[in-house]
Amino acid sequence: MARRCRAPPSGRSARRGTAACGSAWDREGSAGYAGVSFDAGDGLRGLPRQREPFPTAARDADGKLWFATTGGIAVIDPRRWPVNVVPPPVVIEEVVADDRELRPAAGLELPPNTRNLKLRFAALSLTAPERVRFRYRLDGYDDDWHGPVGARTVSYTNLPPRSYRFRVVACNNDGLWNDVGATQGFAILPAFHQTRTFQALWLAVIVVLAWTAYRWRVRQLAARLDLQFEERLAERTRIARELHDTLLQGFLSASMQLNVAIGEIPTEAVTRSRLDYVQQLMARVIEEARGALRGLRSSDRAADDLGQSLSRVRGELGDPETASFHVIAEGQVRPLRPIIRDEVYRIGREALVNAFRHSGARNIEVALEYRSRQLRLLVRDDGKGVDPEVLQSGREGHWGLSGMRERAEAIGARLRLWSRSGFGTEVELAVPSRIAFEGDAAPGRWWRISLFAKRGRRGDRRHASEMND
Amino acid sequence: MVDDHPLMREGIAAILRSQPDTELVADAATGREAIMRFGQHRPDVTLMDVRLPDMSGIDAVIAIRSEFPEARIVMLSTFEGDVEIQRALRAGARGYLLKSLPPAQIVGCIRDVHAGKKCIPSEVAARLAEHLSDDELSSREIEVLQQVAAGHRNRDIAGQLYITEETVKVHVKHIMEKLGARDRTEAVAIALRRGVIHY
């Protein structure tokens, strides 16, 4: 018995079901037109009969199409295809947050730490509910629409805490979309550890920890530095004692005896004047030893200014005044740690000795720069320069360069030397403030000082003083 | 003649031998020896090194003078530390000599003291005048300072002297104030120079 295909085309050329009303229509690609499939859901029974060469489909004079199937004859009237024109209303039925079922409501708030979120929705389309399709999108999470899908639930897991809007639209069996759809706004509340307050707190804790670690480190370094100073102090005391007990006492005694012996030699004897000279020499050595032992240079109040001490070097060397010699201090002169002052002085002195004795320079200049970050000592001359080979080779000792380097390293300073044959020499010593200046080791103060120094520097006009010897 | 350095004793002996009016009657290397020998020999003039291995020369002066108040003692020192000079003179020393002075001056000084005069060379006097008005360190402070000079930390010093670390800090602060030092290192340097403590 003939049946009429009641179902309309889906309009989306979806091939659904098992039987096609006409096999030719299925070859949509080659023919260039869309195919429409019908199945049992449309009331089509049986399978199409296709036994060549007999035709199984025919059109009658009214334009109806007749098909022979295994279940009988099917007929469809193309002019009277019923189309479902009702867009399906969509509802969001339920929100399930971690197995808790919630009625959809405006401003729905989900508890903190909601891990699984399921949304159930439905569309009312009575014609063919199984052919209803949905598209959905979670604003605040999805970038694009999902679907179309047939499923009526969608799950999300581990959504971050914030506000969301779930939107779902549906189409009926004929692909007619209800673009308004349904919307459900909701928010997942943040757990305490997800709140901004907490995050700010956490950040603060990290900053404080980092700062504490930094301070601890600085303090540790300062303590190590202090320990170094103390060790050196003890060492210095020990060496001084040794010198005092052996060398100096011996010299004093020898000098006394020499003095007595000289007294026994007639004034006119030739040896007398020679011995007198030896006597004077010994007196000088004794004075120097006494001076060294007393740490005269390092702690004498009058010699406290590094610049002044350095400006006296030429006088001490007893060099003929062939070169012009200047010592310039720049910046706010700050008190140096005595040991550092000592070392800087010795390095500077060594550099000056080189300049006076070996460079043949016409101009020799010492610049002392008291910066907020460091103390910088520059000793320049326009002499013949240090032979690069000397710089490279082990003959450094001749210039006292290795000694200078060692001294610089020992106090954590950096020593650099530029020189070219014929273009003079420049020795630069940079001592970090923390090491160089009095009181800078305490980290708190260090910061304050460097901040103030930065601010103060601008207003601080460059004051340079010249100290000729 | 009291000095723990044999070479030094030899030198002084040579000077004394060279003079017609001086004679070395006895010498000693330690404070205890000096006190003992003084009783035996009753010298006209005693030359006493400030630094002796068993006690300070100044303590030896005090000990000798408590028994023999008329003893004429001249201190001998390598350095002119004002505190040391002051202490020596207060202890009753009649003179303060530097070992580096020319022998003639040393002998002259011995003669002066023998004649009942005092003998303070100009170098020594100048050093003394420098710090006349300064505060003196207490004996406890000197103890602390000696420990600092030995390279000990506050904590160690506290343990050694049976006081708290805080007390040590206070002492160190006072020491620095009194000596006009800016830190421990400088305090030690000044104290050594002025003879508050010794190497």
What does this structure look like?
The complex is a heterodimer of chains A (469) and B (199). In chain A, 38% of the residues lie in helices and 24% in strands. Chain A contains 13 helices and 19 strands. Chain A has helices at residues 23-26, 28-31, 196-264, 270-294, 296-299, 306-311, 313-317, 338-359, 388-392, 396-399, 401-410, 433-436, 443-459, and strands spanning 3-4, 57-59, 65-69, 72-76, 90-97, 100-102, 108-110, 116-123, 133-139, 146-149, 153-157, 163-171, 177-188, 324-331, 363-370, 374-381, 414-419, 425-432, 465-466. In chain A, the strands form four sheets. In chain A, strands 17-18-16-15-14-19 form a six-stranded mixed beta sheet. A five-stranded mixed beta sheet of chain A has the order 7-13-12-9-10, with no helix packed on it. In chain A, strand 14 (324-331), helix 8 (338-359) and strand 15 form a beta-alpha-beta unit. In chain A, helix 8 packs antiparallel against helix 11 (401-410). The N and C termini of chain A lie far apart (132 Å). Chain B has helices at residues 6-18, 31-41, 57-67, 82-91, 103-114, 122-130, 139-149, 154-161, 165-179, 184-194; strands at 46-49, 73-77, 95-98. In chain B, helix 4 packs across helix 6 (122-130). The A-B interface holds A 227, 229-231, 233-235, 237, 240-241, 244-245, 248-250, 252-257, 259-260, 263-264, 283, 286-287, 290, 293-296, 298-299, 335, 337-339, 438 and B 5, 7-8, 10-12, 14-15, 17-18, 78-79, 99-100, 102-103, 106, 148-153, 182-186, 188-190, 192-193, 199.
Question: Topology, please?
Answer:
The complex is a heterodimer of chains A (469) and B (199).
Chain A: E1 3-4, H1 23-26, H2 28-31, E2 57-59, E3 65-69, E4 72-76, E5 90-97, E6 100-102, E7 108-110, E8 116-123, E9 133-139, E10 146-149, E11 153-157, E12 163-171, E13 177-188, H3 196-264, H4 270-294, H5 296-299, H6 306-311, H7 313-317, E14 324-331, H8 338-359, E15 363-370, E16 374-381, H9 388-392, H10 396-399, H11 401-410, E17 414-419, E18 425-432, H12 433-436, H13 443-459, E19 465-466
Parallel strand pairs in A: 1-4, 7-13, 14-15
Antiparallel strand pairs in A: 2-3, 3-4, 5-6, 5-8, 8-11, 9-10, 9-12, 12-13, 14-19, 15-16, 16-18, 17-18
Helix pairs in contact in A: 3-4, 8-11
Chain B: H1 6-18, H2 31-41, E1 46-49, H3 57-67, E2 73-77, H4 82-91, E3 95-98, H5 103-114, H6 122-130, H7 139-149, H8 154-161, H9 165-179, H10 184-194
Parallel strand pairs in B: 1-2, 2-3
Helix pairs in contact in B: 2-3, 3-4, 4-6, 7-9, 7-10, 8-9, 9-10
